[in-house]
Amino acid sequence: MSVTSPSLPRVAVLGATGFIGRRLCATLHERGHGLLAVARKQPAEALPGEFAAFDLTVDAPAALAELFTEHRIDVVVNAAGGMWGLTDEQMVPANLGMVSRLLETLASMAKAPRLVQIGTVHEYGLFPVGETYTEDSPARPSMLYGQLKLQATELIAAAVREQGLDAVVLRLGNVVGAGQPSHSLLGVMAGKLADARAAGTVAELSLMPLTAQREFLHLQDGVDAMVAALAPAGPCPPVLNLGLGRATSARELVELLIEESGVPTRITEVPAPDGGGPETEWHQLDISATERALDWKPVRSLRDAVAELWTAAAAARD
Predict the structure, then answer these.
(1) Residues involved in catalysis
(2) Helices 219-228 and 19-30, interaxial angle, to 10°?
(3) In DSSP terms, which residues pair with 168 in a beta bridge?
(4) Which of 64, 91, 317 is nearest to 197 (CA)?
(5) What would the DSSP string read from start to end of the chain?
(6) Which of 15, 108, 255, 299 could make an S-S bridge to 79, C-beta 3.0–4.6 Å?
(7) 225/290 Cα distance (integer angstroms)
(8) Within 10 Å of residue 250's Cβ, how many Cβ atoms?
(9) Each residue of 110-155: pLDDT tens digit?
(10) Angle at the Cα of 5 (from 3 to 8), degrees rounded to 5?
């Protein structure tokens, strides 16, 4: 049983029932932080710490300010939002509207908590193949999700400049681990492998070329960086990259997943949609500023991340 330490920041996690939020709450609780988990609905499986049901897209900012004050919150981590399973219309309030309301909340408080915003590598858009992006690289998002997250980052940066808000945005790569969203590529593949394992059949997987090279990161490494960002020992830039610092093909992760599962698999190669050619998307982040500011390094392998994903998916299917 974890004992709350009065010397550690008290943290509110927004989006506490999500893929990242759940792991973050568990880690904060284990390390002795006072914790307020915030989500739209009480989850069936209880979260550690205290829980408050609050819809950031519609509930009053004044009520959220009262909630933070009541629980003596020192740091707010916004892990809410996302794109998997959301329509374009749903993505706007989920990724931008709630940040605007959150900033209104913080601006109304006599002493605003520090804000740690979970951003995304997609704020940069498509990289030239082989290029490594720093936090100062141009941000030209090509997809709606990235555009909305960039707008949220810009709102936060303006609040830092104009209102003195204490905040950092962590531009996160693609995280992999237990509880992977079922709509994601690896979530879909894990579900099919788990179904085949349960049925005692060969898994039939249809795969596009999957030649895209992207930033991936073990979920726990990402969460460890978020915890380090709560109260950095030294100066912390307003935006930090968060990944492994190297590009990895999506196909490699799918193959790792198949290997970890041990499920006999038959792969059918299918062309990209609309007759398009192989993907050429490239994401590779420079994480040196993050390592310096947060005294953090990724220490877990992608094989470990995929093994954790598979163990959880198989257990859920069983």
Answers:
(1) 145
(2) 60
(3) 116
(4) 317
(5) -----TTSPPEEEETTTSHHHHHHHHHHHHTT--EEEEESS--SSPPSSEEEE--TTTS-HHHHHHHHHHTT-SEEEE-----TT--HHHHHIIIIIHHHHHHHHHHTSSSPPEEEEEEEGGGSBPPPTT--B-TTS--B--SHHHHHHHHHHHHHHHHHHHH---EEEEEE-EEESTT--TTSHHHHHHHHHHHHHHHTS-EEEEE-----EEEEEEHHHHHHHHHHTTS-SS---SEEEES-SSEEEHHHHHHHHHHHHT--EEEEE-PPGGG------B--B--HHHHHHHT----S-HHHHHHHHHHHHHHHH-
(6) 15
(7) 8
(8) 21
(9) 999 999 999 999 999 988 889 999 999 999 998 899 999 999 999 9
(10) 140
The answer to pTM > 0.70 is yes
Nearest to 309 by CA among 179, 220, 221, 199: 179
Two tokens, residue 109: 């408080």
